[in-house]
User: Fold these one by one.
Assistant:
Number 1:
Amino acid sequence: MGIEQLTEQARQLDDSQIQLLCEMAESLRGPCDVWVNHDSDLVSERFSDAMLNRLKLHHATSEEKFKKASFEYAFVSAARYAGASSYKTRSQTFQGADVVVDGVRWSLKTEASAKMSESNIAVSKFSEARWIRDCFTPEDFANECVPRFLKHLGEYDRVVTLRAFDAPADRVRYHLVEIPKGLLALVGQLKPDDFSARTRNGGSSALVYDSSGIAFRVVLDGSVEKVTLARISVDRCVQHAIWTVPTIPDSSQ
């Protein structure tokens, strides 16, 4: 759509819509900070521009950080703008990949806790796990967790998370970080002795190691019946890009 088409569309809007359109345009023109890993095979200049604009538009009308569904649509849009074939999978409850880009299956995660660590990534929902209720011993947890974890991991090719941090002067800093699939696959090395005894909420946990030491912690949360991941070192991951965008002031301040 060019300027002429945009002007024609604007003529058909009422005053309230024009005001909103102006706010969005002002947001798109606003200054921001961008860093892109030049070795990234995901974030090209066009991908970065498209993702940045989606983030700007979102925060033109909301102080709330990007959620998973918004990230999925923005990721697909950015990939298409960068020239790739991209689409969302069939539903938000699908246990496998969230989006497919040029045949590559991506699992998308988001993280936006106020107390989240800069150096360690948490995945609040790696997968659902109703089977946890049937586990009572470390052997049960190992026998159920390891094959199910690897099966779930096999349903996509790459994993990326969008991490949102509060920044000074009413801004939000977004980090796009890829968690290597090979790192997560180390769960396959876990044995019954690695799992803790059953907790009061019916769960368990295990530390996963690589050649450098503790790689991350897998948590089987019996209270909500899901698998979560904690303490994934950012140093073991690939930082693809960082976007810092202005947002509307927090109404609680």
Note: Residues 45-61 form the longest helix (17 residues).
Number 2:
Amino acid sequence: MFLMNMQALLADELQQEPKDRYSHSKLAYRLNPATAVGHLKKNVVALRTSDSPQQILPELKESFLQHVEPVRPGRKYPRQKDKYRHRKTPVLMRNRKNVL
């Protein structure tokens, strides 16, 4: 919860930056929240224990801005609610890797 709140605060500060950097592009761009949380996981201890987190924050913000994703219009697929209804317990997918 703490990481998500920090990610939301930092992303809110950087909201306009991808729009300015990629204004010449065909698609609009936004920050990738999954990689942002991954970068925060690596640096949260340094942020909390450091005497001057102002030195770490610009590097963290720049790493957020290096991982942007295009906003593709019309990419909403319907959710199949009854696909797994017959199962009693949910199946946990273990074939996933961490983002970072």
Note: The beta strands are 28-31, 68-71.
Number 3:
Amino acid sequence: MRFEQGKVNQLFQQRKLMRNWSGFRPKENHRGLIMGTALLADAAGIFIVGMTLQIELRVATVVGDCLMTFSIFQRMGSHRQRIYQLEVCPRDKLSHNGVPAIYGPHEHMPNEEVYAVSETSVDCDNWQGSFSWFLSRTNIESFVLEQPC
């Protein structure tokens, strides 16, 4: 799905707040994943219609094998579209099969653009650094969230 660039720019510039955090729970349709969601509100605390934040983590069975996804979705009619996603995984793991292929953490931007993330704090061993970078990148007010596992 293509998004109007002006609206995308406005969305990323607008300060947002996380509200109604669900807490982490096992994902019903996928063993080994936990997920939490929140609604997003503007700076005045008014909910942004159809916009949600989702954090999904794979509970690693092998040390150092992580997968963390931090996403923003927008409901458009009956479909939920990904607006932005930060995917954190080991730096030596092929994580995106596009051209060029990407190893390690990367971000999905609106309009299907994908970029490698070289920020050192975005790493499997740094939950808080990865979460903080996501909040900063998407202009969401800082929110303390305990590392789930």
Note: Strands lie at 16-19, 25-26, 33-42, 47-58, 67-76, 79-88, 94-96, 102-103, 106-108, 114-116.
